[in-house]
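Subject: design request, 297 residues
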């Protein structure tokens, strides 16, 4: 038994050293520094909430050196930010979390100071994006029982095989949440290409409403989105959406709460014509609406 534990201990230490060579310290806020992970040569991914300034950003390297970094862009909806720095660090092996199972061992790595830090835990749950607060757009994510020490946000979650499963964040209080590789890839590629996250724009203010039994039977769902406002010159106005309409579907996706609408308004729908199914005057209607790009405000 002692040999088994010693071997496991040695393997965990080796994984920490291996992947830790790709984890940096991120100095972008007044308080304790946070962590970041190399995505590709010269590109670092970290948590958006730890990047409190757009300039005067520095990173700390595993060898103790410190260098300047620039902010490529940020995405508050996934709590991710991308930095660029002229650092020559090894790129870790990133992998999807799709094959991960609840109960498997994972390591959380962070570098809030000069030295790498690690904490061991297990995958507690595999959660869908609809468990997140309004406005957050993350693919199915991992929840773990690892201890998120101060400065661990932006660090790596590592599988027992030594692959990076995603970036840890303490953006949701009381939960050790890992933003998965699939979300990171989508955000990083968009930010490197555009410098910002492009979002679809409909132009309505809406709130959840429970449908009457008759309307629920007609719509095939119990809830819809009551349109409380329509922005002037918006795609919704151009498409004929009116205050008082109840939105029930965006193409084939059911709309039951504002988060549903936020999630379907991705960048890939910009410029496309979609079918909005809605209830108006007790009857189902369909409108064709061309989705715009959310303006920067």
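Subject: RE: design request

Done. Sequence follows.
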């Amino acid at each position: 038994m002692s040999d088994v534990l010693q071997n496991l201990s040695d393997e965990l230490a080796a994984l920490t050293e291996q992947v830790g060579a790709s984890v940096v310290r991120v100095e972008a806020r007044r308080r304790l520094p946070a962590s970041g992970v190399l995505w590709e040569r010269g590109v670092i991914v970290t948590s958006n909430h730890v990047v409190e300034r757009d300039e005067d950003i520095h990173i700390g390297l595993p060898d103790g050196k410190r260098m300047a970094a620039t902010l490529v862009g940020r995405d508050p909806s996934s709590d991710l930010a991308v930095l660029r720095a002229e650092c020559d660090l090894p790129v870790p092996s990133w992998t999807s979390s799709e094959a991960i199972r609840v109960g498997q061992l994972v390591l959380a790595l962070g570098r809030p100071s000069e030295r790498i830090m690690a904490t061991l835990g297990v995958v507690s749950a595999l959660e869908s994006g609809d468990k997140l607060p309004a406005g957050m757009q993350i693919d199915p994510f991992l929840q773990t029982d690892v201890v998120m020490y101060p400065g661990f946000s932006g660090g790596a979650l590592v599988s027992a095989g030594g692959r990076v499963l995603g970036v840890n964040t303490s953006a949701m209080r009381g939960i050790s949440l890992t933003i998965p590789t699939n979300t990171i890839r989508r955000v990083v590629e968009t930010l490197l290409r555009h410098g910002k996250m492009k979002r679809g724009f409909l132009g309505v203010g809406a709130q959840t409403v429970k449908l009457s039994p008759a309307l629920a039977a007609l719509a095939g769902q119990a809830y819809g989105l009551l349109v409380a406002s329509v922005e002037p010159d918006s795609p919704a106005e151009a498409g004929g959406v009116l205050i008082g309409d109840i939105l029930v579907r965006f193409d084939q996706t059911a709309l039951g709460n504002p988060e549903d609408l936020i999630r379907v308004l991705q960048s890939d729908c910009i410029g496309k014509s979609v079918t909005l199914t809605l209830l108006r005057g007790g009857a189902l209607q369909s409108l064709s609406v061309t989705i715009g790009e959310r303006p920067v405000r």
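The domain at 200-293 is CATH 2.30.42.10 (Pdz3 Domain).
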